[in-house]
Design goal:
The chain is an alpha+beta fold. It is 23% helix and 37% strand. The chain has a domain at 2-72 and 86-104. The chain has two helices and ten strands, in the order E-E-E-E-E-E-E-E-E-E-H-H. The protein is flat.
Length: 180
């Protein structure tokens, strides 16, 4: 069985017996912690997804230790300006061991009341639907679509090509038109 939990701003997939690092938490090593925000539970290929959390689910964990991550170097510079800054950072963390994933399925009575309430809502909606249909105003008549001159077929330029050929026939070929 596994669970996806939201704890201290991080969403993590956890299983029983697993050790997980979270940002620094208050509490001494050996103290027990309960994680209430379980977003998803999975078992045997089936998943229960919460909306936003799974009702009645929680994860029990034990604080193992506190520590600090490896140093990260933060280096800033601006070229040709003589600006250089170097700093280091180490993030604090807490290691938790997941002891148990607690689940409780919704009661059968809650499911039965939910199914009884659904048909009542459906009948109320079906009665209201005919009233809404008669209250609608008829749609306004649509304007006829304007004819586009670009789409219409353009007349062929046969006349213009004929006039060009007539002009070229009247000209003498091979002369430059210079007097000499």
């Amino acid at each position: 069985m596994y669970a996806i939990v939201d704890y201290v701003g991080r969403q993590v997939r956890v299983e029983q017996g697993q050790e997980v690092k979270f940002p620094l938490l208050d509490g001494e090593p050996g103290a027990n912690v309960t994680i209430e925000r379980v977003l998803l539970l999975g078992e045997n290929g089936e998943a229960r997804v919460g909306q936003p959390v799974v009702a009645g689910a929680s994860v029990d964990a034990t604080i193992l230790s506190h520590g600090r991550e490896r140093k990260i170097i933060v280096f800033k510079f601006k070229r040709r300006k003589g600006y250089r800054r170097k700093a280091g950072h180490r993030q604090d963390y807490t290691t938790l061991r997941i002891n148990a994933i607690n689940t409780s399925k919704p009661a059968a009575k809650a499911k039965a009341t939910a199914t009884k309430a659904a048909p009542k809502e459906a009948t109320a909606k079906s009665k209201a639907a005919p009233k809404a249909a008669t209250a609608k105003k008829p749609a306004a008549a649509k304007k006829p679509a304007a004819k586009s001159t670009k789409i219409a077929a353009k007349p062929k330029k046969a006349a213009s090509t004929a006039s060009k050929s007539a002009k070229s026939a009247g000209k003498k070929t091979g002369t430059t038109g210079k007097k000499g």
